[in-house]
Every structure is written in C-alpha cells, then in structure tokens.
Design goal:
single chain; 383 residues; 2 domains; 3 strands
Length: 383
C-alpha cells in the first residue's frame, strides 16, 4: 500500500475554504447515509425511472433511498443538467470513496488556496470539477450511470499544485509486507504517478470508467483543467503591468532624444526606468538588458511594490532560465514572495532553484537561509 499523508512546506494561516469543502462533503455523506438508509419505495418516480433501463432488470432488494438520491443528483451523461453538474461533486459512493478524496483535498488544498486566494480557489475548485465531469461526458455521452464524488475537482486542485509547487515534498506511507515506512517523495513524482500510472494508463486499458467504477476520464479532465488554468494564472502574473508605472511619463527627457531604459537605470532614475520598462511592448521587454531589469526588480521590492517586482524577476527567468542571472532572478522572486507577499511555499520553489543553479554562490547562501527560515516557521520555531 502506498498512501500520501502530508506535504511540506505549508503556507501560514488557515485554509478556510478547504475546511469548509471538507465539512460540506462529510456532512452531506453522513446526513444522507443516516437518514436515507432504508429500502427504496418502488413507487417513487426516480425508482421508476431507474427501473426503465432494461439493463437493470428487476428492482434490487438492496436498493436504498440513498441510492435513489445518488441516481437523482449524481451526474448522468445521458440526462445531463446544470444542477447535477455541481451536486454530483458533493455525493460519494461510500465511506472509503469519501475518505480518500478528503485526504487528498486536505493534503493539496491549503497551498493552492493560499496561492489563488479564497474566492479564486473556490472558483477553481468548482470550475475544474465541472470541467472534469464534462470531459467524462465527452468520453461516455450515452452513460446513464450517475457520476458522483469530489475527485474530479480535487484532481483539478492537484493540477494547480503540479505547476505551482513542483519542489514541495509529499510524505508517503509505504506498507509492503514487513516494510513499513514514511518516505519523502518530490511532489511532481507523486502527482505524475497519480495522473499517469493511476489514471491515464488504466483509462487506455479500460476506458473512461474502470471495472471498479473509478471514473478515470473525470480525473484526467480535472487534472489537465487545473494545469491549464494554472498556466494562465502563472502567465498573467509574469506579464502583469502595474497601472501606476504604465501611466507614468518619464520626467526630464529632452524632446529631441529619448533616454533609453539602460541609461535610466545607470543614472539611478529607477522610477522612470520602471515606467519605461512596464510601458514597453512585449517585444521590447524581451530585448531589455536583464541585469538592468534585475536592478529595477530589486528597487521595486525595496519600495514595497511586490507584484511589479515579481513580474520583473519572472520575465528575466523566462528569457534567461539558466546561469548566474537566473539564480539572481530566482533569489529576488523568492525574497519578494517570502517578505512582501507572504508566500513562503512559492518562495521555497525559487530558493531551491537558486541552489541548483549556483550552489557555491552568495545567492545560494541567502537561499539556504530562506529555506531554513521557512522550515523553522512551519515548526513554530520563529516568532
């Protein structure tokens, strides 16, 4: 048995939306199973509809009112509705189905919630859950078997996590005969194994729904929906242009000659340099000297303009992914996210990249101190 049980590092604060989603799923399951455990009434309209499918034969003596609820509010591809597109995310086929889903949401949800913000995270959860169901429908449009469970939405959360937190580690409980141990595995290995080994390969062998009733198609659709939206969020952050600089005009520029971005930086006119940088078109931005862009990014960070600074650092990384410049940009991005944006988990990714790129540099030493601070903070060793 191989079972993820936790991840590290984790963000500060409380993942309220994740807790609420877990609470709703558990409450719906307990309330429904406790109050609807009795045998279904054969005269109920939904039971009659259930029995009209000739593949089901006669009314099963084990059919319960909860089964009727699942049939009515689970998502059936052949009878799709907007209501069941969302109600199906909060119904589960059994206790272990619920427990497994909530464990994965508990492990991966808090970091994604902190990264997207509460409303953004809720929208991402519901949106990728809907996308997962629709992808499943595209693969099995004639099915009248109800699709239930939060796993499509949670797969979407895992798609976000795969892009945003590749350097995190997941603590995995391993039980193999007499071998019992908790091992630390890179997050991308765990998530890559989940999507490829546990879903894509079984889908290719068994179809959208496996013999055990696992909706592989929904898991695949949710994961790649989350990954795709994460790419859009990531790109938007990298290419953001703060209004205050986009609208600022360079001061003291002679009308007969426009001062270049590099000249503004070298003369210490950082505000005007930032204005020139963010007002340039994308093609010009790619051609600007990366060292000067790094200096502007550091000035923006010192001025408390964190998102603008992060955009500058990440544009350098987009054009110079390796070498000393990349290490300096990763360090700048990590420090601004740790100190200004309170995103220690995102900073952790950048600090590890600094160490990989330039392990013996001063930047790497600062990055190691940042990692130590993050780890101590998570243990509660830092005030």
């Amino acid at each position: 048995m191989i079972l993820p049980i936790s991840d590290a590092p984790n963000p500060p604060g409380r993942p309220l939306v994740t807790w609420v989603l877990i609470g709703i799923n558990v409450a719906v399951y307990l309330l429904a199973t406790l109050t609807l455990s009795g045998a279904a009434d054969p005269s109920h309209p939904v039971v009659q509809e259930f029995m009209r499918d000739p593949t089901r034969g006669v009314l099963s003596p084990g059919l319960t009112n909860y089964d009727v609820l699942v049939f009515e509010y689970g998502f059936r591809s052949a009878h799709a509705s907007l209501l069941t597109l969302f109600t199906s995310m909060f119904l589960h086929g059994g206790f272990f189905h619920l427990a497994g889903n909530m464990l994965f949401l508990w492990i991966f949800g808090d970091n994604v919630e902190h990264r997207l913000g509460r409303l953004g995270y809720l929208g991402a959860y519901l949106g990728t859950g809907a996308a997962a169901t629709l992808f499943f429908t595209a693969l099995s449009s004639a099915s009248d078997v109800p699709l239930v469970g939060a796993s499509g939405a949670i797969s979407g959360v895992m798609g976000f996590y795969f892009l945003f937190f590749p350097r995190n580690v997941v603590n995995v409980f391993v039980l193999f005969f007499v071998f019992i141990r908790v091992v630390r595995v890179p997050a991308r290995v765990v998530l890559g194994g989940y999507i490829i080994l546990s879903n894509i390969l079984p889908y290719l062998g068994q179809g959208a729904v496996g013999a055990s009733g696992v909706a592989y198609g929904a898991h695949i659709g949710g994961f790649f929906a989350g990954l795709g939206v994460a790419c859009l969020v990531d790109r938007r952050e990298r290419e953001s242009r703060p209004d205050e600089f986009r609208r600022t005009k360079a001061e003291g520029t002679p009308p007969e000659r426009r001062v270049t971005f590099e000249e503004l930086v070298s003369s210490g006119r950082m505000r005007q340099a930032a204005a020139a940088y963010f007002s340039a078109d994308d093609h010009s931005l790619d051609r600007m000297a990366p060292r000067e862009v790094l200096l502007v990014g550091r000035w923006l960070s010192e001025e408390g303009k964190a998102r603008a600074a992060l955009s500058a650092f990440r544009r350098v990384l987009a054009s110079h992914p390796t070498g000393v410049l990349a290490a300096d940009a990763h360090l700048g991005a990590g420090l601004v996210q740790l100190k200004n944006l309170e995103r220690p988990t995102s900073a952790y990714q950048h600090f590890l990249d600094v160490i990989d790129l330039e392990p013996e540099s001063e930047a790497a030493q600062i990055a190691r101190e940042g990692i130590e601070f993050i780890e101590r903070s998570e243990r509660g060793d830092v005030g």
